[in-house]
Amino acid sequence: MGWTRNCSNTISSEHFISENVLSILNPKSVRISGAAWTPTEQSLDLPLTGLQANILCTRHNSALSPLDTLAGKLFRAVDGIYENLSRPRLSRRPIWHLFSGEELELWLLKTVLGFFHANVLSQNGRKIAEAQEIMNPAIEAAYRTGYLAEPCGMYVQKNTTTLVQRRVLDFTSLSDERGERVVGCQLRIGGITTRFIIDPGMTDRDLFIRDYSYRPDYLLYEGRGRRHWIVLTWPPRQSRRAVRFEITG
Questions:
Q1: Domain that holds residue 97
Q2: b/e map 64-100, b = 16+ CB within 10 Å
Q3: pTM
Q4: Are 24 and 74 in contact (CB under 8 A)?
Q5: Which element (helix H / strand E) includes 96?
Q6: Number of domains, the chain
Q7: Would you say the C-alpha torsion 104, 191, 118, 50 has a positive or negative sign?
Q8: pLDDT value at position 66?
Q9: What gap in Å lies between CA 161 and CA 245, rounded to an integer?
Q10: Cα 183 from Cα 201, distance rounded (Å)
């Protein structure tokens, strides 16, 4: 955030993916692969304290903490939905959860920037932060307005009908054709697979987002004759979009 020229003088240790989200997956440790310091095609179990980096000043760490809080509440709700639908219950009453889609995207933006500046991502044996850039006008505009302009934003994989692994976390950065710029990421967490685009100039975007729903209004979870809905708020638009998850076990 140094480009804002609004940093405090003290650097704070920051989880490059929110601790309250990581603790939902596992309260003690997380299995990591694909990082610059993990062996090729191998994974390591690291304590949550091992996923920190000195990448934010205390002012911006505090200012951005509500995004971490929102993400924690959302994925805790998703985990509770899986828990509820995995067990027989007499009630057939649908349950609704409401979250801000705009704030969720800002958390995703914070996450991809965190992974990049923590210098933990590698590609072909080289650290991405040493070979690529990430900032662009769309990110700068989001800082001022609190909103990512189309076609940037969150694309969610449609209609998952197999047993999802709700406590798996997988992060992959996406680069442009020349390998000079990070244009987005793919994040799988809580059984939700998201492709998140941060560069409006990304080429072949239509091929990349096939079978994905852009900024869905509803995430519908079904199992054992019951339904849970997560509602995501977005600016007004004509059509409504939903992604369905069938919980099979």
A1: 10-246
A2: beebbebbbebbebbbebbebbeeeeeeeeeeebebe
A3: 0.89
A4: no
A5: strand 95-100
A6: 1
A7: positive
A8: 94
A9: 6
A10: 8
Are 249 and 223 in contact by the 8 Å Cβ rule? The answer is no
**What is the model's pLDDT at position 190?**
81
pLDDT digits (tens, 9 = 90+) for 71-122: 999 999 998 998 888 888 778 889 999 999 999 999 999 999 988 888 877 7
Residues 215-242 pLDDT 10s: 999 999 998 889 999 999 998 888 899 9
Whether residue 4 lies inside any domain: the answer is no
Helix ranges, 86-132 (H):
101-117, 128-131
3 lies in some domain = no
Per DSSP, what are the bridge partners of residue 186? 172, 195
Domain for residue 154, yes or no?
A: yes
Q: What is the pLDDT of residue 30?
A: 64
Query: Which two three-digit tokens encode residue 86?
Result: 């995995």
Find, among 144, 213, 155, the residue nearest to 183 by Cα.
155
CA distance 204 to 216: 21
Q: For 121-180, how does the pLDDT look when each residue is reduced to its tens digit (9 = 90+)?
A: 777 667 888 889 999 999 999 999 999 999 999 999 987 655 556 666 778 888 888 888
Q: How many CA atoms lie within 13 A of 36 on its CB side?
A: 16
Q: Is residue 138 part of a domain?
A: yes
What 8-state DSSP symbol labels residue 224?
T
In DSSP terms, 189 is beta-bridged to 169, 192
Amino acid at 27: P
Rounded-to-integer distance, Cα 77 and Cα 112, Å: 22
Average pLDDT, the chain: 85
